[in-house]
Amino acid sequence: MKDCAMIHIQASCASEKETSLKTDRFSSRDAAHSSLQVGLIGCGGFVRGNHLPNLAKEPGFVIRAICDLNAAVLAPLQSKYDPNYVTQDAEKLIRDPSIDLILIGTKPDARLPLIRAAVNAGKAVFVEKPLGTDWEETREILRIFRARPTPCMVGLNRPYSRIMQEVKRIFSRHRRGPTLISYRIVCEDILWPEHHRQTLRSGQSTILHEICHIFDLLNWLTDSLPETIYAVGGRSDNNLMTLTYPNETQATIISGGCGTEGFPKEQMEIFTNHGVIRMNEFVELNVAQIPGEEDQFFPVKFNPRGPLDGFTEASLRKALKAARQGLTPEQIAVGYYYDVRVWVDKGHREEIRWLRDCLLEKKPIPTNEVRGAQSVFLALKALESLKSGQVVPLDWTALMKL
Ligand SMILES: NC(=O)c1ccc[n+]([C@@H]2O[C@H](COP(=O)([O-])OP(=O)(O)OC[C@H]3O[C@@H](n4cnc5c(N)ncnc54)[C@H](O)[C@@H]3O)[C@@H](O)[C@H]2O)c1
Q1: pLDDT of 17 over the 70 cut
Q2: pTM
Q3: Is 42 a pocket residue for ligand 1 (Cβ < 6 Å)?
């Protein structure tokens, strides 16, 4: 694994002293022989499809306890993952002295009291994105971690993916002069689970709930924070955003739900120093005019019909088109498709590996609470721009004023 510092932008860097304070709980462990005892709170569609199977497969984790308010999800998880207990009472996990790490997979509206209780109990915390839903709540979460330094990872997974690690390596080496970055992330909103669609109908925006990933990715890639942001488009989805970064670097994001799942969702193109780096849906990395670099291909993480290796963007596109055509009304009513289509590797398993290694080896966690807050801050400023129709200058000192 590469050094954590590589993935870590300056503004979110915990000091050496702070890091050692944060990881005291784990300092007596022998890293080679330790396991982290994990308690999960909130096991909805995403956690059941990603974090639970990843934690179960990854050495160094023991799934000790599983909690969800919905009793119906607990029985199958008990038989599948064999934790010591399942419960509807999150306090029970938080009080459990054998648990080292609490993974909070609820939606953001339930998180603040869970984070506060877990930190006060001295647990390490993994919390899904977005870290908060408004600035007051996000500041409160930062205050909690500042008052009692505790290891925290926010589920901003894309930088941990192998393809993005390669993009960053090549970009860092080749970057010079004006740089243009274009990120497209467009899917098919009619296939989302009803509760997600309801969230957007209630006035919330994918700019906060999903594009926080891309803001964090761009900050990490450019090793900087943007100076301005401008957004146009719909109130809840289907937006164009532009961000100006230092060093003659401009980024644009196209995000929406008006596309189709029968087509790759994400693509990034970087133009710098008269060369090009293209990330194509996490399977194909193309380069042009960058000495010493060739195109690379990356395995998918799940393929219901064959091997994980060997995909190109074109063959993936064919597989996605066929899977979309085969979806039944019953599957669409559920809104999760984890077992019926190819899933590309966006770094969820690597993220869990980094979490383990950072905790056991006492390294700073790259996507910590500060990075989580930075991505929320950018989302809120993009929404401000959407409302006002103006370019919004970004004053990052707001993050310091807790
Ligand atoms: N990182 C990623 O790529 C990614 C992708 C999808 C979703 N997510 C994030 O994951 C989170 C969950 O999304 P989801 O689609 O699984 O939502 P979901 O509604 O399906 O799951 C949330 C679960 O939390 C449970 N819950 C709520 N409050 C609880 C509490 N106090 N105690 C115990 N359980 C509680 C609910 O019963 C539900 O089962 C969201 O924040 C979402 O943004 C991340």
Answers
A1: no
A2: 0.92
A3: yes
